[in-house]
Amino acid sequence: MTGYDDGKDAYLARLKRVEGQVRGLHRMVESDAYCIDVLTQVSAVTKALQAVALGLLTDHLGHCVVQAAGQGGDAADAKVREAADAVARLVRS
C-alpha cells in the first residue's frame, strides 16, 4: 500500500489536467504564440506539478515515514533520509 492510496484518483485527475496543459503548450509553440503567453502557461504547469509533488510528499510523510518511525531502527532512519532527499530535490527544482 502506498501513502497516496486514499488520494490516488485525485492525483490521477490532476495529472490528467497537467497532461492537457502540456499539450496546450505544445500547440501554443506550434502556432507561434507570444513568448510571454507561453511562459505564463509554463508557469501554470510548473505550479500544478509542484502541487502534486507536495501532496505526494505529505502523504509519504504521513504514511510511509510515520509507519517506519513506529518500527524504529535503521528502517526509520532510511525513510527519514529518503524523505529529506526528496525535499532537497523539490527545493532545487
UniProtKB/TrEMBL annotation:
InterPro entries to which the protein is assigned, alphabetical: Metal_Tscrpt_repr, Metal_Tscrpt_repr_sf
Alphabetized UniProt keyword annotations: Copper
Top-level taxon in the UniProt lineage: Bacteria
UniProt xrefs under CDD domains: CsoR-like_DUF156 (cd10148)
Gene3D superfamilies xrefs: Metal-sensitive repressor, helix protomer (1.20.58.1000)
Record GO terms (molecular function): DNA binding; metal ion binding
GO BP term, example: negative regulation of DNA-templated transcription
Family: Belongs to the CsoR family.
Entry-linked PANTHER family: COPPER-SENSING TRANSCRIPTIONAL REPRESSOR RICR (PTHR33677:SF3), TRANSCRIPTIONAL REPRESSOR FRMR-RELATED (PTHR33677)
Listed name of the protein: Copper-sensing transcriptional repressor RicR
